[in-house]
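seq/struct pair 1
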Amino acid sequence: MTDASPAFEKLKVDFMSRLPRRLERIDALWKKLIYLRWDGARLDVLINEVHKLSGTAGTYGLVGLGLRARALEAVLESVRGTPGAPTTEQRDLISRFVAELRHWEETLGPEDDPVASLIQVRGKAPHVALIEDDEQLAQILCLWLEDMGIRPHLYANPEAFDADDSVYRFQAILLDLAFPDAQDGGLKWLETRGRRWTARSPVIVMTSRTDIVSRIRALRLGATGYLIKPVSRDALEMRLGAALKLGHRARDRVLVIDDDQDILRYYKRLLEESGFEVHCLAQPLETLEVLEACQPDVILMDYHMPGCTGLELAQLLKQDERYFQIPILFVSGSPEALDQRELLSIVGNDFLCKPVEDVVLIMHLRRLVAQARRRLQTIGSVSRRPQPRGLMNRALFYQELEQHVAQVRSGKLPKDVVALVLIQVRDAGVLREQLGLRGTAELGMKLERLVAEWRDVNGMGTAAGDTACLCLFSVSDPAVLKRTLNDALEKLEGQLSESTGAQISLVAGAVLLGGSI
C-alpha cells in the first residue's frame, strides 16, 4: 500500500544494529550513578535514554523490550521525584530492571519442535524450494529432504527461482543468504521479490554468518527460521518440521473492524490470499456478538469508528475475561490516533500508522498470533494467572504496571495509592544450603501464593527470582503504607517459617507510583 517500506526496513535494521550499544549505555549510566556519585543531571540523562528506548522498541515490534523499558522508566521517574539518593531497596529494584533489559529475548520464529508426522501432508509429499549455489551441499540437502519424504526443487540463486514458472505451491523455502555475486543476495531478495513468498510460505534461511544483525534482519523480513552452516540433518529436520507445521495448521482467524466497506473488502482479499480466515465487521457496537461467534486469534481495527473509538472498544475487550487475551492491532493515520499512539500500544498490542505495506501488516498479524499462542502455552490456560490464586505471568504484570503508569500520566489517577514493592527472602543463599534446591523452590512458590492472596495486592504481582517477587500494593493513604506493609511482612514471615521449619526473614523496598510521576 506504500512505497516507503524499504526506507522503513532500513530504519529497523539500523535500530537493531545500534541496540546493543544503547543497552550498554543504559547499564553504564546506572552503574555510574550507584558506584561513583548520585547526580541528578546524570539521572535525567538515564531516564531520557530509557524513555527513548521504550518508545522506539514497540515501534519496531520488540514488545518485550518495550515493556521492560517502560517499567524501568516508571521506577526511575518515581525515584527522581524524591529528594536524595535512592534507598538500598530502590537500587536493588532498579538494578533488576536494568539487568532484564540487558538479557531481553524476542522469540519471533516458530517453536523448534520436530514434527515427523507433518512431513507427509494429506498423503502427498510436500514441495520445498532449495535456493543454494553450493552444488555439493545442495546435493546432500536434496538427499536428506527426499529421505524425509519431501520433494526438493533446486535453484542456484534467487533469480533462477523467480524465473521458474512452474505451478508448484511450495510448502516451505530453504534460502541461502550469500551468493558469489551478492554476499547479501538472500536478504536483498527477501526485501524485494521474496516478499510475496514470505506472505504465503515459511522461509528458512541458511548461512554461515552468526551475527545478530543479519539474523534479526532476516526475521524482520519475514523469515520463520534460521540455520547456521554447516547444517546438520537433525537441525534441518527439526526446523523444517516446525515450518511445515506452521504452514499446514488451521488458518489463523482475523476479525477486521472498520466502518469503511472498501477497506474491509481490501483487507479481506489481502488476508485471505495470505492464508488467514477473515471475518469483517462494519458496526463496532456489534463486536461482542461477533466475537462470541467467530472466536478470532487476532483483531485488526481502525481508531475512528461510529459509536465508539478503537481505544474505547479495546479497553472494553481487555476488561472482559473471555477476550482480554486476544491480541489487537490498531491501524490508523489520523492525527488523534498518532497522539494516542503510546496508549493504543498499551491497551492494544501494536499500532501501525497508515499507509502500511501489505507485507508489514501480515508480518505484524502473524507475530501477534504467535506471541499470543506462546503466552497461553506458558500460562497453561486462557486464565491470566499461571495457577489458581498465584501471581501473574511477568509480561502480563508489566502490562498492568504500564497501564497504571499511563493512567497517572493522563491525569486519571487511581482511587488508591499504589506502590511497586519488591519482596525478597533475606540470606537466600544460606537458606538454599539449609533447605536444598527443592525446599528453596517450595519456599518461593509459597511466597508467591501468600503474596497473591494479600488483599492489598489481589494477585497483581510476578516472580522476580527464586525467592523474590514484585507486586503492586494498594492503600488508601500513603501515610499508612509503611505500617501496613510491615504488618503484612511480619505475618508473612511467620507463615513461611511455620511451613518450612526454618527462620525466614524478609526484606522489602517500595516505590510510590502516584504523584511523583
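seq/struct pair 2
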Amino acid sequence: MASRAVLHIFEDYQASRTKFVQTVAELAMRSQNMEALQNAGAMALLRPLLLDTVPSIQQVKAVVSNEVLPQLVHSLSEQNVNFLCYFCLLFDGTNVLLLIKKRPFFKKQRYHKKAAAFVTRSVAKHTPELAQKVVDAGALEPLVKCLSDASALSEISKHNNELAQAVVNSGVVTYLTSLVQHPDSKLKRQACSALAQIAKHSADLAEVIVEAEIFPKIFTCLKDLDVIVRKNAATLIREIAKHTLELASLIVNASGHAVLVEFVTENTGNTRLPGIMALGYIGAFSDTLALAIIVNQGIAPLKEALSNEEEDYIKAAASWSLGQIGRHTPDHSKALAQAGVFRILIDIFQNEQSSQDLKTKAQKAFKATVQKCTYLPALELLLHVINFICLIFSYKNFVYILLGNRQFMYKSFFNHTFFIEKR
C-alpha cells in the first residue's frame, strides 16, 4: 500500500507537468498570449523541463516551432536570450537558423551577440550541409557586422571552397586582416584561424587575402606572446604558401621566410609544425626560394626538429621540408650534407621505433637530396654505412663525378669494395 501511494504521487506529478507543457504550447501558438506568458515566467518554468526524460514532457519543443519562435525572439526579456540560444542547441541545432533570420537578435547587447555567434559556430562546425544552411539563412552579414566570434566564420569556411567563397563574398576578409593587429589575443587567434580556413581551399582565395594586405602584418603575429596566435599565424602563412610559386615568392620578397626560420627556432612541439611545413612548401617551388631559406640559416632549426622532437609526425614534417629544400641542385644538397642531415635521415629510417610514415618520409627525403649530392666528403662517409639504399646512391653519384675526380673515386671505391668483401 505504501509503495502504491508513493507511485500515485509521482503519477500525479507527471500528469500535471504534461498538462502544463501542453497548455503552454497551445497558448504560445497565439501571439496575443506571448506577453502574458512572459510576464508569468513561462520561460523560467520551462527551463528545467528541457532535460526531462519523459517523452510527453518533451513536447516543450513545440514552443519553438517555426510559427512560435519569431514571436519569442521579439518578446524575450534580456535575461532569457542566452537561454534561447541554449534551447536551440539542445535539440538539433537547426532551430538557430530561425534566430539568424531575425536580424534584431544581433542588434542586442554585446554579450548577447556573443551568445548568438557562439550558437551559429556550434551549428556550422559539424557538416558542410549545416554550414550551408547557416549561410542560406543569412548569417554571414550579421556575423561580419559584429565579429564578436570570428571562429563562427572559421567553422563555416573550413568545409569546402564554395562555403569559403561565400564568406569572402560577404566582404569579411578586409575586417579580418585588420584584426590580426588587434591588442586582444583571443580576437587575433580567431582572425588568423578564419583567414587560414579561407586560404587553404584555392590559390584564388589565398590571393584575396594577400590583396587585403595581410603581408607583412601577419609576420608580427609570429612573435606574439600568445602561443596560439603564433601557431595560427604560421598556419595562415602555410596555407597561402602551398598553392603557387607566385604566392610563395611574395612571402620571401616580404622577408617572411626569415621570420619563419626564427619562428621554428624559437618554438617547439606542435606549435612550430605549421612553420616547418611552410618552409617546406616555400622551398619546394624553386631553387631560388630554397636557397633563400638556406642563406637565412633555415637548415639548422629543421635539423634540430628532426633530431630532438619527441613526436614522429613532427619529425616527418621536418624530413619532408628538408627534402623539398635540398632536392634542387648539388649546392642545395651540399648544404644538407654539411649540416649532417644525411646521417640523421639514415638513422631514422633504420630505427625500428620510428613510425612507418616517418620512415617513408625520411627515406624519400634522403633519396631526393643524395641524388643531387656531389660533395665528396659526404659521399665517402655514406660508403661506410651498411645499407643497400645508401650504397646504391653513393656509387651512382661517384660515377657522375668520376671524370672530375678520378683518383679520389677509385681510391674510395676499391677501399670500400674490399671492406664489403671482408665483411
